[in-house]
Amino acid sequence: MVSLATLTAEFGKKYKRTNAELVFDPRKRVEFIPSGNIIFDLVSGGGFPRGRISEVFGLEHSGKTALTLLMAASQQKLGNIGVFIDHELTWHAPYAEKTYNLIQDNETFTVFQPSCIEEGDLIVDELDKLDKLDYIIFDSVDAMRPKLALQRSQMKDSAIPGSHAKAMSDMVHKMLGFAHRKHCAAIFINQMRAAIITKKYEQTAKSAAGYAPNESFITTGGHTLRFYASLRTKTEYADKIVDELGMDVVMGAQEKYGTRKGSQIKIINVKSKVGTPYLKGISNFVFPTPDNPGGWQRGLDLLELLKRRGRVRQQSSRFVYNGLKPEFAEWTSTGKVVSEDKFCNSPELMEDAEQLLKSLIGKHDVSKLLDMAVQGEDFTVDEIDESGYKPSTDPNFDDFTVPGSNDPVSEISI
Predict the structure, then answer these.
(1) What torsion do the CA atoms of 131, 137, 140, 144 make, to the nearest 10 degrees?
(2) Is residue 341 over pLDDT 50?
(3) For position 392, what pLDDT does the model report?
(4) 340 pLDDT tier (thresholds 50, 70, 90)
(5) Residue 185 and residue 60: Cα distance in Å, rounded?
(6) I need a labelling partner for 396 at 20 to 30 A (CA). Which of 14, 23, 190, 327 fits?
(7) CA nearest 102: which of 344, 293, 287?
(8) Using alpha carbons only, what angle is made at residue 345 by residues 342 and 351, rounded to the nearest 5 degrees?
(9) What is the pLDDT of residue 67?
(10) Distance set, CA 75 to CA 5, 100, 127, 270 (Å)
């Protein structure tokens, strides 16, 4: 009789590797790379998971690339190393530096621009030689076309059917091992297309596609990525941010209904092997102007989160913030725009608000239950209910109740 321990030891001798080097320790919690966007970090469970593949997809102008650039900028400040593989050939260094403070210094961050997926594959081979790599971003899946398909399209000949999906399947399988070895986050940005004949698959797969089964949209590059991704996040336009006193920079006059200065972006955790799926949140993004760098508005996100939890009250045009520190126990300000500017531009207030939010969310940390499950500890439905996190009675599958609030996630920023 051969025991499992003996078999494992023999296996390690045969391949000159121990079993621990082949698989992750199941008792070890997955490490995350924070994105810098507090809504995404809450929705995803901590950010982009290391050693795993993540996918960010959505329609045009929905903040996909902006989210990854913010993550890259926040990691650059910490000295972490990352690579941006720009298959779309649209990298704009001045914009990245102005809006995100992301500098292409070739020490902590660099950009490659391959012309086809084969060149991107060679770049990945070279990156495998690095001693350290924290994240790698591919922008985007639809632009990762095989060289042969591009040549045939230039010759006005029909491309090989399924060549893009086959090439992406090979790349995804390669990145599985790459991300595991380098312990880095592999992030694919993907686009959505109007699907012509996908009804049968979508209705069969139900929510596996990441959106309503009857919706005629689908991500590009085949289905391999959606199956192997540990985290799939959909971004979509939710509402516009309007400056009521804004001026039309083109016509030089004040617009009747105000000037649109940004967008509210809904971030949806479509699939997660590292946390709780189907969480939603809304984040604020302001467009860059000559006078304002714009970008993701962490202060506005914090303000909205605390409003929903009753720690920021708005009485007419008067704002009242109940913070942690004594000096912020009853912080007041008058005027919506003025109050938001004061709140977002005060480092002390922002720090206090972040600590307050962490204390409020920490009381209902769902990840503790996930750790119990990973470590083999038993937990009951009663323990889940006591955690403060449980599904809503609403029949919709993606409508959850947030701890500390009576509002569903589908309606508020978590």
Answers:
(1) 10
(2) yes
(3) 36
(4) confident
(5) 24
(6) 190
(7) 293
(8) 105
(9) 97
(10) 40, 11, 18, 24
